Amino acid sequence: MKANTSGILTRLFDFTNERVNSCLESVLSLSVPDQRLIEAMRYATMGGGKRIRPLLVYASAKAVEAKMEDADAAACAVELVHSFSLVHDDLPVMDDDDLRRGKPSVHKAYDEPTAVLVGDALQSLAFQCLSTQKSSLSESTKLAMVQILSEATGAEGMTGGQAMDLRAEQFPIDLSVLENMHQRKTGALIKASVKLGAICNPRVATNILERLERFADLIGLAFQVQDDVLDEISETSTLGKPKGSDRAQNKTTYVSLLGIERAKRKAVELSEQALLSIQDLSPAADELRELAEFMTSRAN
Amino acid sequence: MKANTSGILTRLFDFTNERVNSCLESVLSLSVPDQRLIEAMRYATMGGGKRIRPLLVYASAKAVEAKMEDADAAACAVELVHSFSLVHDDLPVMDDDDLRRGKPSVHKAYDEPTAVLVGDALQSLAFQCLSTQKSSLSESTKLAMVQILSEATGAEGMTGGQAMDLRAEQFPIDLSVLENMHQRKTGALIKASVKLGAICNPRVATNILERLERFADLIGLAFQVQDDVLDEISETSTLGKPKGSDRAQNKTTYVSLLGIERAKRKAVELSEQALLSIQDLSPAADELRELAEFMTSRAN
To answer: Which of A36, A89, B107, B170 is at a distance of 20 to 30 A from B261, taking alpha carbons?
Structure first.
C-alpha cells in the first residue's frame, strides 16, 4: 500500500494505523459473557483495511489545525461504520463475497447470523464511541458528530446507496442515477469523514468547511470510479476479493457505462477538481492533497 | 390490547400512539431517489406494534415530572431500535419468522437484502433522531441519550443478547446464563427506555434514578419470562407469529427450564418486585405502575 507514497503520506499512514488500531482495541474491549461476537467484531475491524476514512478524518483535522487527539473518536467511528457496511455487503443475500481484504468474509469465517449481528453491533459501537469520547471537544460538537455520522450512514446516505446499488443489478440505470447512488453509497461516509475532521476545530471558517465538503464530494466520487476500474482490471490477489465480481453480478458501473478508458480518465479529472477546490488552503492541507492523489492512483 | 386496562393506561396508550406515529412519520419523510427502502422502513415501524418501549419512555418521563414533549425523540428512537431488531431477528438466517405483528415479515413483504438494509437504516435513524431533536433538553442530555441508547443496542446489550440467544439453540444453558441473555436481549432496551424518560428531567435525583433502573431491570425480565410463556400457550392469531416457535427451534426458555407454571409464577413475582422498587414514588409514577402490571398480564 505504501509503495510510491511520499514521506508525508507514509507518516500519516503510520500515525493513523497506530491510533485507529489502539482506539479500536480499546472500544472492542467489551465485557460480555459470550466472547464470540466480540471476536468476530475484532476480525471484521482489525484485519488490515486501508483505513481511508480515518486517514481523511486526521488529514482534514490537520488541515484546519485541530488537535489530532480530538479526531480519534471520529476516526474510529467512521472505520466502525465502514467495517459494518462491508460485513453486511458481503452477506450471501447481498453481494455474496466470500473474500474481504484477502481473508474469508465474516460470514465465512464465522457464520451468517453472526455476520448480521457483527454489523449491527459495529454500528452501535460507532455511536457509542462518539458519545463517550473523552476529547476536549464541547458536547455540542460531539452531538454534531453523531448527527453527521448518522445521516451519512442511514437511508439518505450509505445504506440508501446500497439499496440503490441492489436495484441497479435488476434495472439498467443511467449515469446520473449511478452518480447519485455512488454519492450515497461511498461518497456520504467519505464526506462525513472530512466534515468530522474539520469540526474538530470548532472555529473552522464556513468557507473553509465548504471547500472541504466540495473536496470530499469530488474525492468520494473519484474513489468510487477508481473502485469500479479496479474491480475490472486488478488481479484477485491484489484486490483481496474476486476480480470482475461487479460484472459477474451484472452491475451497472462506471466501467460498464463509460468503458474502461473513459472511466480511468474520469477518476483522474475528478481528483484534479478535488485538488483545485482546496488549492487556497495552507500547507496544513498537504496530507489531504496527497491523500486525494493516493486514493485515485491506488491499486487495491 | 386495551381490554382490561385502566383509564389512565388507555390515555397513555392513545397519547403514545399518536405522538410516536407522528414522530415516526416525520423522521421517515426522507428524501431519496429510490423510495422502496423508505417504504419498507415504514412497513417495519408503522405496522401497529404495542409501542411498549415508547410507553415506558413517556411513563418514566411523567414519573419524574419532565415535559412530555422532551421525551418524544427518545420514544421514537427506542421504537426505531426495537423495529430494527425485529426485522433482523426475523431473517431466515436468524429466527426465520415469516410473520410479525400478524403481517408478513419485512423479508417476506419485500426481500432479504432489503430487510438487512431496513434494519441498518432504522438503527442509524434512531441516532439521527436523538442528535437532531428540537427539544428543550441540553446538548449534554441529548449526548447522554445517544450514549444510553448505543450501549443498550450494541454488543453489551441487545445485539449481544441476540448472539447469546442464537448460541442457546446449539448448547443447553442454565438459568443464570438465560437470565443474563434476557437482561441483554430485551432487558437492555427496556431499561434504556426508562432511563431515557427519566433524564428528560435533568435534575432527577440519583436515588429516584436508581429506583427506576431497578424497576426497569425487573420489569424487563418479567416481560421476557412472559414472552416465553406466551410463545408456548398463545394461539398464532393472538400472538401475531407462529405459536411454539421457540420450542420448534429447540431454544432454552424459562418455560423449558422451569415448566409453564413456575415460569408464569416467576413473571408475577418479578412484576411484584418491580412495583415494590418504586412504591415510594409519587402518584406521578402511576402510569409506570400500571404499565408494569399490563406488561406481565398481556396476551400478546
So the answer is: B170
B7-294 carries CATH number 1.10.600.10:
yes
Model confidence band, residue A243 (pLDDT cutoffs 50, 70, 90): low
Helix axis angle, A139-153 to A188-198, nearest 10°:
170
B147/A159 touch (CB, cutoff 8 Å), yes or no: no
Q: Report residue A207: phi and psi, to 5°.
A: -70, -30
List Cβ neighbours of A164 (8 Å cut-off, separation of 6 or more).
Answer: A177, A180, A181, A184, A185, B33, B34
Calculate what percentage of chain A has a pLDDT beyond 90: 75
Please report, for residues A108, A180, B10, B168, the alpha-carbon distance to residue B171 in angstroms, rounded to integers and kept in the order given.
Answer: 21, 47, 42, 5
| A120 touching B (Cβ < 8 Å) | yes
The shortest CB-CB distance from B124 to any of A91, A154, A164 is to: A154
Predicted confidence at residue B233, as pLDDT, reads 84
State which amino acid sits at residue B116. Answer: V
The minimal CB distance from B121 to the residues A38, A124, A159 is found for A159
pLDDT at A246: 67
pLDDT at residue B252, rounded to an integer: 83
Backbone angles phi, psi at A251, to 5 degrees: -80, 140
Say what the pLDDT of residue B47 is: 75
| Contact indicator for B198, B58 with CB cutoff of 8 Å | no
Residue A245's pLDDT band (boundaries 50, 70, 90)? low
Which B-chain residues 235-274 have CB contacts (< 8 A) with chain A? none
Inter-chain CB proximity B130 and A146 less than 8 Å: yes
pLDDT of residue A242 exceeding 70: no
B181 CA to centre of own chain: 15
Q: ipTM greater than 0.95, yes or no?
A: no
Q: Domain A7-205 - what CATH class?
A: mainly alpha
Structural element, H or E, at residue A100: strand A99-100
Q: Is A9 exposed, middle or buried (0-12, 13-18, 19+ CB in 10 A)?
A: buried
Task: Tell which wins on pLDDT, B212 or A233.
Answer: B212
- Per domain, the residue ranges of chain A are 7-205
Kindly state whether B68 is in contact with chain A, defined as any CB-CB distance less than 8 angstroms.
Answer: no
Q: What mean pLDDT do residues B226-249 have?
A: 71
DSSP B128-166: HHHHT--SSS-HHHHHHHHHHHHHHHSTTTHHHHHHHHH
Q: How confident is the model at residue B295 (pLDDT cuts 50, 70, 90)?
A: confident
SS3 assignment, position A270: helix
- The whole-chain average pLDDT of chain A stands at 91
**Residue B65 to residue A257: CA distance in whole angstroms:** 60
Rounded to the nearest 10 degrees, what angle do helices A112-131 and A139-153 cross at?
A: 150
Report the amino acid identity of residue A154.
G
Whether the predicted model's global pTM rises above the 0.80 cut: yes
* Shortest CA gap A20–chain B (Å): 20
